[in-house]
Amino acid sequence: MKELVLKFSFYLLIVLTLCAVTLSLFTHDMMIMGVGILLAVATLLLGLEKKQHRADPFRN
Questions:
Q1: Is residue 58 part of a domain?
Q2: What's the number of domains the chain is made of?
Q3: Does residue 14 contact residue 43 with C-beta atoms inside 8 Å?
Q4: How many other C-beta atoms lie within 10 A of the C-beta of residue 13?
Q5: Taking the CA of residue 12 as centre, how many other CA atoms within 13 Å lie in the half-sphere pointing to its CB?
Q6: Which residues cross the membrane (predicted)?
Q7: Which domain holds residue 14?
Q8: Which of 8, 11, 34, 40 has the most crowded Cβ, counting Cβ within 10 A?
């Protein structure tokens, strides 16, 4: 169940990152670009967490 939540959150963050970056390029707003960069960092951290969860041999 945790792996499904991690996968869903990972793909949701990818979509939100692309939306924020596209919107910031369209409106020339650096605050939205900052949000997009923070979402990209969160996506990277969530991807690493998913990879670590998958590598755990004692997971349920």
A1: no
A2: 1
A3: yes
A4: 19
A5: 7
A6: 5-25, 31-48
A7: 1-50
A8: 40
Residues, the chain: 60
Closest CA to 24 of 39, 13, 12, 9: 39
Q: Is residue 59 part of a domain?
A: no
pLDDT of 38 reads: 87
Query: What does the pLDDT read at residue 37?
Result: 85
Angle, nearest 10°, between helix axes 2-27 and 30-55?
A: 160
Sign of CA dihedral 23, 21, 6, 45: negative
Q: Which residue has the tokens 């979509």?
A: 15
Query: Looking at residue 46, what is its pLDDT?
Result: 86
